[in-house]
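Build the 3D complex.
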Amino acid sequence: MTLLGKKQKCHAAQSVSFNGKRKVVLVGNPNVGKSVLFNVLTGAYVTVSNYPGTSVEVTRGVAIIEEEQFEVIDTPGMYSLMPITEEERVGREILLNECPDIVIHVIDARNLERMLAMTIQLIEAGLPVILVVNIMDEAERLGLGINIPLLGEKLGIPVIGAAMAKKRGVEEIRKSISGFNPKEIRQFNYNKKFEDDITEIALMLKGDYRLSRKAIALLLMQKDNEIAELIEEQEGAGYQAIDELVREKVFERRESLHMDISMQRREIVKGIIKDVFSAPERRRFTLSDKLSNWSVSPLTGIPLLLIVLYFGLYQFVGVFGAGTVVDLLEKKLIEGMFNPWITETVNNVVPWEIIQELIVGEYGIITMGVRYAVGIILPIVATFFLFFSMLEDSGYFPRLALLVDRVFKKIGLSGRAVIPMVLGFGCDTMATMVTRTLETVRERIIATLLLALAIPCSAQLGLILSLLSKSQGSFFVWAGCVLMLFLTVGFFAARVIPGDKTMFYMELPPMRMPQLSNVLTKTYTRMQWYFMEILPLFIFASVLLWLGKITHFFEKMVEWFNPVINAIGLPKETTVAFIFGFFRRDYGAAGLFDLQEKGLLDVRQITVAAVTLTLFVPCIAQFLIMKKERGLKTALMMGLFVSVIAFGSGYFLNKLLVTTGIL
Amino acid sequence: MKLSENAEEILEAMWIAIEENGGDFAAIQYIGIDSRDPAYAELVDSALIELKDGHAYFFEKGREEGRQTIRRHRLAERLLMDVLDIRGEEGDKKACQFEHLLKEGVDIKVCNMLNHPSTCPHGKQIPMGDCCTEARKSGNLGVLPLTELNPKEDGEIAFIQTKDSKIMHKLMSMGVLPGNQIYLVQNFPSYIFRIGYSEFAIDSEMADKIYVRQLVRQ
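Done.
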């Protein structure tokens, strides 16, 4: 609750600071190099966690500068102190709740004028600001000149020019942090009439606040409800008069309040950068501009996309990751060497067969759970995440998003949703989590549903493709069915599910060569998450399967499922594969793979089984995340819906294939 | 020339029957103003029209007067529906009252403000006024939504028109502020614009909230 709390608390926290560390908070727009600065400052001591009560992730780490430890917090991207998205809200709460000793505002040198507007807001709010003007190297390449010392003088705060990608300016930033000494805060004035209004409101505020009164008055005028609630709490009886005054002022300016504030800030910024910033007459065009143009125009963008998918997904993840590396790791190393050894060891040490079975049996924790996780999933997912992080770092995703926005709107999503959708081809579970970056609840629900239904994850995809490789026709039937369902279900979901219409807007950062260190850090963080979340589930699934086997519950389940399986024209042996499929999508596919090897399934049955299994219920991990993100009721409904669609499609596809005899 | 309201109604009805439907005359019984109304005499006395066998004919001066009247009527419709948001029957009714005020230069002001619309809300042509011809000749298209700009064209942002303060904030944080220069990179499949050294992609719902003044290239 303590968004603004009492100032004293903050000071108390500062002097007694629980771990004796000064706090440094990084803020700024997305894509300005905040995270790179964070990584450079903190090194490896990093924790990622949800901000309390929200689904927004916040990264914290420790920086050691001249033997002093600093707690460093990286906030989600924000454009202004007046929040719109949940991420911006969290960013602001951190600024206010965490009592930062230093706020580092990171901006992009190329967009100095636009981004300084937020610096002004931060200074105005009375926060202890250091300004890092990042991406100086690119700015210089464009011929832009920025007089950093003069800018510092005009703003009255430390200003450092940097190029994080080249580690330029790191030492200065570190020095500036350790030697930070908040000075008198400079005042930037709006026009007379506006200042008078703000002062009038500010003078009525009697409480003691962390933000300057001027900033609070401005936020109140902009109808910031959170701030209003807290002021009400703090001011008690006096609030009514304040509220009335604010209303009156707002009414006087009803035509253009928001616009006025922005325009006046721009004037202030213009005054500041007058002698600081110089730009060449004509904009220089770089290779990155050209590449960017190619990627966003449909004529060149779509072929480029296909090339990226072919080399990135098919060659790198499919052929190399799922083929070469899995062969080496799973077949040669684990199955060939590790498993026989561990099986023998366990069997020698543990006398009870039932326990042997649990650890190294058919569904054993080690022989199945760990083997799957490390031998099959790890290489596929690692190569996928590497590919994904490279695309992410190159700045390609926003361009892909704008390319598909029109099509995605038809299925109730904005182009932004392309990121979780692509990620879903790596791991649907992680993608379901990433749907929280989508703006409206409606969009999140549709994206979650489509991920659960029609996006096969990399492990499953690999296995299904090899299943279908025997007959080209079956591949096209499978791909056609899944794509059609993706679009149809999305189309209807967009019409049925209520909620706000989505808007699409995205900044297009310049295209650039992916930076190796960024890519590796991102891949590593994802892999780490993946293992922490997935491995316990694998072990859990192994235990469940083992329990099912020893209690013979498993056979009962097979019996119950049989009629359904028969209805879609499959032999009863496939039932086991489907039950596996619920634990892990790829378990199921692996089961089918075995059956095909044994010659139990013909082409038609393989196709029907592959379609049904692709659509079938998400794996247990994904289901648990669905429950966590969307609530039990929604998750159950989606699970039921997906199962019905999966078996329904299987049924009709089977009928169709039998009647027409296509395959 | 100061005509009564009924006289203006007659001119309008005639203009539609003759100019738009291609007749030689307008049958008085279909004009919708009783044939005994003094407005007819007023028009005949002003040498605007001529009555013969229950038919009304334009003189040249009357034809021009009719054109101006219909123009004012349709501008009034546009103003009421687009700007004041009064629609349907209510809008039609109010437009009929409103049109009579659009005289002595008021019509030109309204026409400029609406950026010289070519059709009324019912899809009918609005006859061009002098102000429209002039605007067309100068090549200055006035203030347009960003969606009307061609790719690779520059504009200067005039204003953001939306009631949704979230959209407003988002656009402003992208640097969409009156007076800033904006360059439209591409308009399909999404709008991409550049302000300063940043590029943004937005959909058409957001793009049509941004109004720009087209910068005429030399």
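Chain B has a mean pLDDT of 86.
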